[in-house]
Amino acid sequence: MSAHRTPPWSQQEIAALEEFYPSMGVDCVQHLPNRSWRAVQQKAFKLGIACEKATSAPKPRLMSDELEEAIRLREDEGWSFARIGAKFGVAESSACNAVLIALCPRKGFTPAERDEHGRITQAGLDRLRYALKLGLKGVEIQLRLGVSASCVAEQRRRYQRDLKARGKAPLPPPGRDTAYSGKKLSREKVREVEALFLEGYGTLKAHEATGVAKTSCTRIRNRLVRRLAKKGKSLPGCDQTGRRLEQKESSRFLCPEQVAALEALLREGVPVLRAARETAIGSCTAYRLRNELRERLVAEGKNLPSVDRSQSTKGSAAFDPTWPPRGQKGLFAFRELLREMPFDQAKAKWRRDRREERAAEARRPKTFEEQLARIARGEIGLAPSINRPHLAPLIGEAA
């Protein structure tokens, strides 16, 4: 059985459309009983028939208290537009339009110029086209000009057609070809991301390895989880809902050589914090490993040696800026080195690289603001003023 198809427009229908649409808009469907208002609108757009009927700007789906709460969730809590839309029962695009249009003047931007009926004027369209020419992303244009996503998309299509008709260069891709969540990905890129998920990697690793935005990686993973669930399968280390049960080995895992070095120091009576510092292990992890070692020794009928307080780091004035690695990123970066070389070599390389970085930073010319920040931190001080009375007569004569 053939699929239902809408009959083509007759000459009588087109004549009625040209006669009534300019003054009535989509209300002219009463003269076109076989057409819906959407079909009337699309046909008028294709034929280039403009509507002269005064209409007001569309109202956002979120208003008053709901809009303020949506803005708070977006700005303070970092919610996605999809999550905000689900909370208030509106589409993701509606939530995005309402929030970004409301944030436009609050962020200090000037909304696109509109006439008394809410339509964007030619000056506003020129500003929008200039933003498209700069290669800004759709959400950036929405925030800067206070327009909807459909308006940006429609003006992009019209501007592209206009440039092509005049033989001009096409518009740059949104975001200047950088990875962001709204960029259309090729099938090969999607398959590359899916292959990493099937190997057991997470969203962050897929983002770092492929350069695809983290939001896009999350969406690809969700679709892959649903496809696998229909087949009764799941991602490695996850259940069929996508919840991770096992972590794939990565730089977040301690190197066995680190654990062995920590236990050796603990057996010698070195305090936990000092042993953790020497082996580049976090303090919480070091205490957990100390407790596990103590339980094993107790099971063997032995005891962990008492701590030698003379080796404690508390109150010590010595401070090595090159060791241990600072913060979570530093620890993970050092563990990456341990995957390639022994602990002693990795430690020596880490300290050498940090010394070179500090020397390069010391040689770099500082801006005035950076100098003020160093004074505020107490790293440097101001030189005291020196009285020079022998210059006073000369200064008086010059005056």
Write the layout of secondary structure elements.
Layout: H1 11-24, H2 37-47, H3 64-75, H4 81-88, H5 92-106, H6 122-134, H7 138-145, H8 149-165, H9 187-198, H10 203-210, H11 214-230, H12 256-267, H13 272-279, H14 283-299, H15 327-338, H16 343-363, H17 368-377, H18 392-398
Helix pairs in contact: 3-5, 4-5, 5-7, 6-8, 9-10, 9-11, 10-11, 12-13, 12-14, 13-14
Shape: elongated
**Order of helices and strands, N to C?**
HHHHHHHHHHHHHHHHHH
Name the average pLDDT: 83
Given as residue ranges, the uncertain stretches (5+ residues, pLDDT < 50) are none
Query: Oligomer, anyone?
Result: single chain
Keyphrases for this structure?
4 domains; 399 residues; mainly alpha; 18 helices; single chain
In short:
The protein has 399 residues and is mainly alpha-helical.
Task: Write up what this structure looks like.
By secondary structure, the protein is mainly α. The protein folds into four domains: 11-47; 64-175, no CATH class; 179-248; 256-310 and 321-357, no CATH class. Helix content is 56%, strand content 0%. The protein is elongated.
